[in-house]
Write a structure and sequence with these properties.
Rossmann fold, 9% strand, binds zinc ion, binds manganese (II) ion
Length: 247
């Protein structure tokens, strides 16, 4: 149920009764082995899986995100939006979809730095969108402690801030888009230091040259499949409880 593949008549007949999923990502470096689109591919692929279990439809994703924290912006290709641009882009899309009859929305986020800005867009939408109900959800927040223990049994869990282009994102990409993963370039790496504050402009020793922040060699397609199904299960349960999905 991809909106971009629907006709306007199909859209008209479905928009009010389905949960509308807006994937939001980034164009951001993800090491030597993953494409710039990781943060878009993951939530969009999860959204498609959710549609197999729920009455939902997926809007074309927002393929750019807010500026990467730490040294992410130092890498060629990391192409980011100003906060006001992301707020307005998200708000325009939600408002138009509301105007067409959409009422139940899931903003499915794949890039940590987007959260405050999509939240602001939803706050602005709700000022004059009677009956709208919106959930904002980042996929990694749906991963249970038990699943973390299982996925990181060998590597050890470094915390989600450091899980960039590493075990979970690489595994999910091996499952969702194996053709986009350069298997021979998967490496383990880490920052020389991880300050608990933000420095502007960012010095280059807070991000390793590779762009990989942890142990990507511990990734596997099997872990990706298990994780994807786990997260989709959590999203479906959330949607039934919070967005009142009947099916
Ligand atoms: Zn990412
Ligand atoms: Mn990201």
């Amino acid at each position: 149920m991809l909106v971009e593949h629907m006709t306007w008549e199909q859209y008209r007949d479905e928009v009010a009764r389905r949960i509308i999923i807006l994937p939001v990502g980034s164009l951001e470096q993800h090491g030597p082995h993953l494409p710039l689109s990781v943060d878009v591919v993951i939530p969009t692929s999860l959204a498609k899986m959710v549609c197999e279990e729920l009455e939902a439809m997926v809007l074309p994703p927002i393929a750019y995100g807010y500026k990467a924290q730490g040294g992410g912006q130092l890498f060629p290709g990391t192409t980011s939006l100003d906060g006001t641009t992301l707020i307005n882009l998200t708000l325009d899309i939600l408002r138009e979809t509301y105007r067409h009859g959409g009422r139940r929305f899931l903003v499915l986020n794949g890039h940590y730095e987007n959260v405050a800005f999509v939240t602001e867009a939803v706050q602005l939408l709700l000022r004059d969108a009677d009956g709208a109900r919106v959930v904002i959800l980042s996929w990694w927040d749906q991963v249970s402690d038990e699943m973390v223990d299982e996925l990181f049994a060998e590597a050890g869990f470094p915390g989600w801030e450091t899980e960039h282009a590493a075990v979970t994102e690489t595994s999910l990409m091996q499952y969702f888009a194996p053709d986009l993963v350069r298997e021979d370039r998967i490496i383990d790496d880490q920052s020389e230091r991880m300050p608990k504050y933000s420095i502007f402009p960012p010095p280059d020793d807070i991000v390793p040259e590779s762009g990989v922040l942890y142990k990507a060699t511990y990734a596997s397609r099997e872990k990706g499949e298990k994780l994807a199904k786990h997260v989709v299960g959590a999203i479906v349960q959330m949607a039934r409880e919070e967005l009142g999905s009947g099916s």
